Amino acid sequence: MHRPLPVQPPVVLPADIPPGVEWVTLPNGVRTLAYTHPQPGPDREPEPARQAEPIPRWARTTALLAPTIGGGIGAAGFGISYAAPGVLAMADALWAAAALIAAGTAAPLLLRAGRGTSHRGGPVQHITQNITANGLFGRATGTLNNR
Question: For the chain, which terminal residue's Cβ has fewer other Cβ atoms within 10 angstroms, N or C?
């Protein structure tokens, strides 16, 4: 049968004990070194309890807004990733519309510039029409002027 030798506590000299550490006896009778909390005595006044400093309003506002702003940026990125194909298609449609407008503006100008005179070589004929009527349901009369 194995019988272990009793464990001898290490020898500690008082000069080796750091401040705040003392020999204490535990409830089971074992003496050991432990950190102790100094008790205020007659020569020592207790330290005043530290009171929490109030949090500045700007820090509280920033702390509350940070997750909201971060979530908004994340949602915007998510939305842009889904909208990118549509945005590219819209850009192509806008370019097509711009080309259509340019072609629609240029074609009449080119046709008018090439048609300075009539096809027979004479001046261009202008027809004016003047129509007048009395009242909403009155009979209308008019004249045509050939110039």
Answer: N
